[in-house]
Design a protein that fits this description.
The protein is α/β, with parallel strands linked by helices. It has two domains: about 55 residues, DNA polymerase, domain 1 (Orthogonal Bundle), CATH 1.10.150; about 300 residues, Alpha-Beta Barrel (TIM Barrel), CATH 3.20.20. Helix content is about 30%, strand content about 15%. The chain is built from twelve helices and twelve strands. Strands 1-2-3-4-7-8-9-10-11-12 form a ten-stranded mixed beta sheet, covered by helices on one side. The protein is elongated, with a radius of gyration of 21 Å. About 5% of the residues have low confidence.
Length: about 375
């Protein structure tokens, strides 16, 4: 809930609006996970609120830790298969969804999503999921193979921030987990509002990056409404070859995506980057590097080269280190900033393209 909605919730229980501000402080600034922690709210006020509302916070149902310190969390959710009203926290909705009859569409059944906490010396970044599964069907991505199983609401998204062990220490987030964020833009935008508002987490938009395959209708809304960074999944500069791996290329041509992006300023606080997964013998040679240089010429941007992590029944392997370094150097020599992203969490299936919401323990 936004600050205004929290004040309305307080008013609906016969409480003063300042109780709504207290709730925002406890939920978002102090990361309170229980009513008991809210010590400056009276017992009677908390009892009145609990009659009508739920905090919406649920602990992960599992976790695993990589040898490199990366930690993957598993969450149980009940996503709606239709359009979900953003962040309705009432108990009746929660109970209805648990029964498979939640608002937003039928067949709201139990699903599992994953989020990944990536520690570095001076930061802790959360790679957050925005959908259960994904509609985009990229052939090299385990999430895409998982299929689409419903939209997360803002509460599901924010719960990934609030319920993990590192909640108080998170410094950054990337919307690069399960799902296409701009296919669930309303919920993602509401989560970003909570993350950046002074009554919320009070994060700078510079600490948030949203990834997209290039969903044009909502990409324009995102660029108009948000100041967060943008990351575009590109992976091949030739449209016909990109289509082989990424069916969404048929709906939203990467050239049209770039035409839109060029209408916005990325020379100041907001950055645009392009994600490029390297496949041996498919997109890792000089021809592809030169085509990428032509495609991005004149655009202030960064290209992140990503090592492909092998998945079953897929014909390609990762490009060699030598090929990746040559590709990087060629782009840098043509004034396109290019880096090779460090691979994190591969041993626990937490690296790029490996999230599938797998739940192995007994229900």
């Amino acid at each position: 809930m936004t600050l205004g909605e929290l004040k309305q919730a307080a008013a609906s229980c016969g409480l003063k609006p300042f109780v709504g501000a207290q709730l925002a402080d406890w939920l978002y600034a102090k990361r309170a996970t229980s009513w008991d922690r809210m010590v400056n709210i009276s017992k009677a006020a908390k009892e009145a609120l609990q009659e009508k509302y739920d905090l919406g916070i649920s602990r992960p149902v599992g976790s695993s830790i990589s040898t490199d310190g990366t930690k993957k969390y598993l969450f149980e959710v009940h996503p709606a298969t239709g359009k979900v009203p953003a962040a309705d926290m009432k108990k009746g909705l929660s109970e209805g969804m648990a029964d498979g009859n939640g608002a937003g569409g039928p067949a709201c059944k139990k699903e599992y999503i994953e989020a990944v906490m990536i520690p570095e010396e001076d930061r802790k970044t959360l790679c957050v999921s925005s959908q259960a599964g994904c509609k985009m069907g990229c052939k090299f991505c385990m999430t895409g193979r998982h299929g689409f199983h419903g939209q997360l609401d803002a509460a599901d998204i924010l719960n990934q921030f609030l319920s993990i062990d590192e909640a108080a220490d998170l410094t950054n987030t990337v919307f690069m987990g399960m799902g296409e964020p701009l296919d669930n833009y309303d919920a993602v935008a509401r989560a970003i509002e909570v993350l950046t508002a002074p009554w919320g987490f009070a994060w700078s938009p510079k600490r948030i990056t949203v990834s997209t395959i290039g969903v044009l209708p909502t990409l324009k809304r995102y660029l108009d409404e948000q100041r967060c960074h943008l990351a575009v999944s590109l992976h091949n500069p030739f449209p016909e070859e990109r289509l082989e791996m990424m069916p969404a290329q048929k709906a939203w041509d990467i050239r049209d995506v770039l035409d839109l992006i060029r209408q916005y300023d990325f020379t100041g606080q907001r950055r645009v980057s392009f994600e490029y997964t390297m496949f041996a013998g498919f997109n890792d040679d000089k021809r592809h590097a030169d085509a990428l240089i032509r495609l991005l010429r004149g655009l202030e941007c960064r290209v992140n080269l990503i090592r492909f992590h092998r998945i079953p029944d897929f014909p390609y392997d990762c490009a060699s280190d030598a090929a990746m370094e040559a590709f990087r150097d060629r782009l840098n020599n043509h004034q396109i900033l290019c880096t090779i992203r460090s691979s994190r969490g591969e041993d626990i299936l937490a690296a790029c393209g490996m999230l599938a919401g797998q739940h192995t323990s007994a229900d």
